[in-house]
Specification:
Layout lengths: L24 H4 L3 H9 L2 E5 L10 E7 L1 E5 L8 E4 L3 E2 L1 H5 L7 E4 L3 E7 H8 L1 H28 L2 H15 L9 H8 L3 H13 L3 E4 L2 E4 L2 H7 L37
Antiparallel strand pairs: 1-7, 2-5, 2-7, 3-4, 3-6, 8-9
């Protein structure tokens, strides 16, 4: 599973507005000559929640929002591609291979550029090494997600996904219904209703009119099983996992202070 990249959580400092490819951390790590070609061939694309990402040989640099990966174009989400990540490396390496369908879980802004613009400049050996290094991590993450689905209660798993989506979308309200969460977690809507009601009674979240507002992020983390949030800690409780610290600064470039 792709690790969540922490973003700031206030509207005043939100980097969602005016983001460009040059703000993306992966793009910034590319050599200047590769950056120039990729930027010349790129285009900003807004993807509405629920819309599928076209698999057309493009790399999608996620600037804001969250993409979900759905095996066999099903309704169960097994991984999240959050802001600061890139979708499409696998297709660039093996265009004919079977892969999960990518759908926007929230309104998402991506910058799309042909994979060739990056891969040709870096070389296919580089891409092979990248995918090989990520493959074992991805397999372990998918195994952890499967174990989580089999062993943790709906409330814990719902809390985990609410934290994951909230951080990945930079604190924007989540435009997802309880039915959407039921489909993602592979449970009935009545189970989501009960779990959501308990979280709302605790003052952690507020559900209403197809939107979810996070009220207490720290409390929601504590209610989560924590899977995918870091290495497990020795504990007698099976669902006890390491909790991440408070959100650090955003990956977006900070605003330079003006001279007095």
């Amino acid at each position: 599973m792709t690790a969540v990249i922490s973003l700031v959580d206030t509207e005043e400092s939100s980097p969602r507005h005016g983001l460009q490819l040059g703000d993306h951390p992966v793009f910034q790590a590319l050599p200047p000559r590769v950056q120039s070609r990729a930027k010349a061939d790129s285009a900003l694309v807004s993807i509405a929640a629920g819309q599928t990402v076209a698999e057309d040989g493009q790399l999608s640099f996620v600037l804001s929002g969250v993409l979900g990966l759905f095996p066999n174009a099903g309704r169960i989400c097994v991984a999240a591609v959050v802001a600061g990540s890139v979708h499409g490396w696998d297709q660039a390496l093996h265009p004919e291979c079977n892969r999960p369908e990518a759908r926007a879980l929230t309104d998402t802004l991506v910058c799309r550029t042909p994979a060739a613009s990056v891969v040709d400049g870096l070389g296919r050996d580089w891409l092979h090494r990248l995918v090989a290094r990520q493959s074992s991590i991805r397999v372990m993450a998918l195994a952890e997600e499967a174990a989580c689905n089999a062993s943790h209660c709906v409330q814990e798993r719902l809390s985990k996904w609410l934290v994951r989506l909230h951080c990945g979308s930079n604190g924007a309200p989540l435009g997802l219904t309880q039915a959407d969460f039921g489909a993602m977690l592979g449970v009935q809507r009545t189970s989501i209703n009960a779990a959501a009601g308990r979280l709302q009674q605790k003052g952690l979240v507020k559900f209403g009119r197809g939107k979810v507002h996070i009220i207490d992020l720290a409390g929601l983390r504590s209610a989560s099983c924590g899977c995918g949030d870091g290495a497990r800690l020795p504990s007698a409780r099976p669902s006890s996992c390491a909790r991440r610290p408070a959100e650090p600064s955003s990956w977006a470039p900070p605003v330079e202070p003006t001279a007095a």
